[in-house]
Design brief:
This protein is an alpha/beta fold. The protein has two domains: about 250 residues, Aldolase class I (TIM Barrel); about 55 residues, no CATH class. It is built from 15 helices and 17 strands. It has a nine-stranded mixed beta sheet, with helices on both faces. α3 packs across α5. The protein starts with a strand and ends with a helix. The relative contact order is 0.11.
């Protein structure tokens, strides 16, 4: 199983962010960690009374590294209490460039964290201001020096394209700057203007012009060209890695394997069930202080649900869905479950079958969501 831990605090809210996160303050974070430990104890320890083994851990948010050194250490002491951290094959922590320090990185290293994910998003000051990011590119360079100096040799960088008013030249420059830093993994996400965000409101008011689809497609294709040329493997729709540095934790999601999510608004997929926690911070803490799990929803997945998820998650991978594995798992051929949909997608050139794999074509990659809808 893989484990996700949600830390819902940031220095400030980014203009495009629709995730469950709050402005950081020490007392709120301290109270949250107490509740988080109670959830872990109830879910993983109360019946077995022994440490659990997990394959991967991903600490995300929010910005986990916004926590003070004292609370960072407390978080990892909690994890060390309930899980065999030495047996974790990939242990990732999300961060922002202006929240990293040498001391904080040493704490992470001491507890077995072996992968960092740094939210850079853009390299131009004006775009960072539009996104309301609390760092600049100088912070990025400095953070890389710190990270490498402490000994981290598996680093991901997140970049965003399709930012309102962003030009193709600015996107190319961001890619070039990050390639020069030589991270092991680069994630290139197409900006989504989400309801309830400051950025969407600014676009609606006409203060900013949204990026045209044609330009977004050029940016996406340019990322593929530049990164593949530099030796990065395009292994998932939005993700590129140096050989053997694919994100193991995310592969768990894309293979539709089991994972447990702990923390505010966290989701889990365990033994055919999908669970989600409340996104109400006060309710989350109150329920756990009373010894009750803060579940918001619990869904028993049907065979059809699991087949659908296996296909549209697997199609995110460039290699696609393994047809033999699909049959072994569900005792039915994928092609027999969706014959009409497949005929349509194959005739439109959006997917192809190569050997034992169903995969997106170059034409289908940029409009993957259109393809996914056929399997829902």
């Amino acid at each position: 199983m893989s484990l996700y831990i949600h830390i819902p605090f940031c220095i400030s809210k980014c203009s495009y962010c629709s995730f469950t996160s709050f402005k950081y303050d020490f007392l709120s974070a301290e109270k949250y960690l107490k509740a988080l430990e109670l959830e872990i104890c109830i879910r993983f320890f109360e019946k077995t009374f022994k440490k659990q083994k997990v394959n991967t851990i991903f600490v995300g948010g929010g910005t986990p590294t916004v926590l003070d050194d004292e609370l960072i250490k407390k978080l990892f002491l909690i994890l060390d209490e309930y899980f065999y951290l030495n047996d974790v094959s990939e242990f990732t922590v999300e961060s922002n460039p202006n929240t990293l320090s040498k001391q904080k990185l040493k704490i992470l290293k001491d507890f077995g964290v072996n992968r960092l994910s740094i939210g850079v998003q853009a390299c131009q000051r004006r775009l960072l201001e539009i996104l309301q990011r609390a760092h600049d590119y100088e912070h990025v360079i400095h953070s890389f020096e710190l990270v490498r100096g402490v000994g981290f040799d598996n680093v991901n960088v997140d970049l965003i394209f399709g930012i309102p008013t962003q030009t193709l030249e600015e996107w190319e420059q961001s890619l070039k700057n990050i390639i020069d830093l030589q991270p092991e993994h680069i994630a290139c996400y197409n900006l989504q203007l989400e309801e309830g965000t400051v950025l969407l409101e600014r676009v609606r008011k006409g203060e900013l012009e949204s990026c045209h689809e044609e330009l977004e497609l050029k940016m996406y294709n340019r990322a593929i060209e530049m990164l593949v040329k530099e030796g990065y493997v395009h292994y998932e729709i939005s993700n590129f890695s140096k050989p053997s540095y694919e994100c193991k934790h995310n592969l768990c999601y894309w293979y539709n394997d089991d994972y447990a999510g702990v923390g505010l608004a966290a989701h889990s997929h365990v033994c055919g069930e999908r669970l989600s926690n409340t996104d109400d911070l006060k309710l989350y803490v109150e329920k756990l202080m009373k010894g009750t799990l803060p579940l918001q929803e619990r869904i028993l997945l049907s065979k059809q649900d699991m087949m659908s998820e296996t296909v549209f998650m697997g199609l995110r991978l460039i290699n696609g869905v393994n047809l033999k594995n699909f049959y072994d798992k569900f005792n039915i051929n994928l092609t027999d479950v969706w014959p009409d949909q497949l005929d349509k997608l194959l005739s439109e050139g959006l997917v192809k079958i190569s050997g034992d794999y169903l995969r997106l074509t170059k034409k289908g990659l940029p409009i993957a969501n259109v393809v996914f809808r056929e399997f829902v």
